[in-house]
Write a structure and sequence with these properties.
- The protein has 15 helices and two strands.
- The chain has a two-stranded antiparallel sheet.
Length: 360
């Protein structure tokens, strides 16, 4: 009745689809990039569909927080958990560095080396995840690493404290962080070391809400409760689809990204209880498998290096499918380099472990 590992994978597949929708179509001024047929007032309908995609980060964070809570509470040895988290971060960074080097090489070949690598300083800042000047979507890399590092402490706090109090506290952190990011209530400014630290802190603060709520759902077994009280309801699928449509309408009326965690988490609750065919699950699993590389590469295609290629199909649905194809093909190339490195690391660690056991 609780989320399985495959459920969280599927949610990550949905999350990456939402991210692509958000970045492609959340623009009211189309400027000839693609055709629009349905307008609501003077705004393309595809804008509102794309804007609903800002649930992508909350969906991914919720699924991560849920999985971390279960994993950490099933691991009694905190040192082992820290080692696993370190390995998780290193795998992500290796994947990131492959993408970074690959697109620097591509930039040279297409005559855009002024964009990548630029100066040595700029390269080093991007390499060590201190800047996302090459690709705006990379800002989340730094935040995710921070959350992984903090996860043992955060999950322990969730486990040992009152859930309502935890929700209230994290809600306050989210509200302050959101206001600081968008309103600069403490007037830090946009430049300098203090501004960079503040930006990282507030982005972490806005990300914590969905991450902690995911952990709270795991702690209180909310999906078990929902399953017992909702699964046998007549017209369950219809109710869930209607609920998602209502969320889309609400977010279209209230466009602020401040409600993205609420729409994202509510979407998850509806989506999980929809009966999904095997082919839908397979497709979402494919997107989940390539989600990291789609996240790390898609902005190069639609914004910086190949916008003409990406928007060539002219129609939103075709552009959307075409961009996903470009990213997945690229992902296979990245995995061709990444997987042997990963196997080497895993094999090396196994050999070290066997040697230690032999010595004992």
């Amino acid at each position: 009745m609780e989320l399985s590992r495959n459920d969280t994978r599927i949610l990550k597949g949905v999350g990456i689809i939402f991210m692509v929708m958000l970045h492609l179509f959340t623009r009211k001024e189309i400027n000839g990039l693609y055709e629009t047929f349905i307008l609501i007032g003077d705004v393309p309908l595809v804008y509102y569909i794309g804007h609903f995609g800002d649930a992508c980060r909350p969906i991914y964070l919720f699924a991560s927080g849920y999985a971390f809570y279960i994993a950490i509470n099933s691991e009694n040895n905190i040192i082992n958990r820290i080692k696993k988290n370190t390995k998780r971060i290193m795998k992500l960074l290796i994947n990131y560095w492959i993408v970074l080097i690959m697109f620097i090489i591509i930039s040279f070949f297409i005559g855009k080396e002024y964009m990548m690598p630029g100066s040595v300083k700029e390269f080093l800042l991007n390499f060590f995840v201190l800047s996302n000047s090459y690709n705006g979507a990379w800002w989340f890399l730094q935040i995710y690493i921070i959350l992984v590092i903090l996860s043992p402490i955060l999950m322990k706090l969730v486990k040992n404290n009152n859930s309502i109090l935890s929700l209230f506290f994290i809600g306050v952190i989210y509200s302050i962080s959101y206001l600081q990011f968008y309103k600069d209530i403490f007037e830090i400014g946009d430049h300098g070391f203090l501004a960079a630290i503040t930006r990282t802190a507030v982005l972490t603060g806005t990300s914590l809400f969905s991450f902690i709520v995911g952990a709270l759902f795991a702690k209180k077994k909310i999906f078990t409760y929902l399953h017992k009280n909702f699964y046998e309801v007549k017209f369950r699928n219809f109710i869930c689809y209607l609920g998602i449509l209502i969320l889309l309408v609400i977010h279209s009326i209230f466009e602020s990204t401040s409600i993205a965690p609420l729409t994202g988490i509510s979407f998850i609750c509806f989506f999980i209880f929809i009966d999904k065919s095997n082919w839908v699950k397979k497709i979402l699993n494919i997107f989940a498998e390539h989600s990291t590389n789609i996240w790390l590469t898609h902005m190069f295609f639609y914004l910086t290096l190949f916008p003409g290629l990406t928007f060539a199909p002219k129609y939103p649905i075709l552009i959307f499918i075409w961009l996903l194809i470009l990213c997945i093909v690229t992902s296979y190339l990245i995995k061709f380099i990444y997987n042997p490195i990963l196997r080497f690391i895993d094999t090396d660690k196994k050999l070290i472990s066997l040697k230690r056991q032999a010595v004992r």
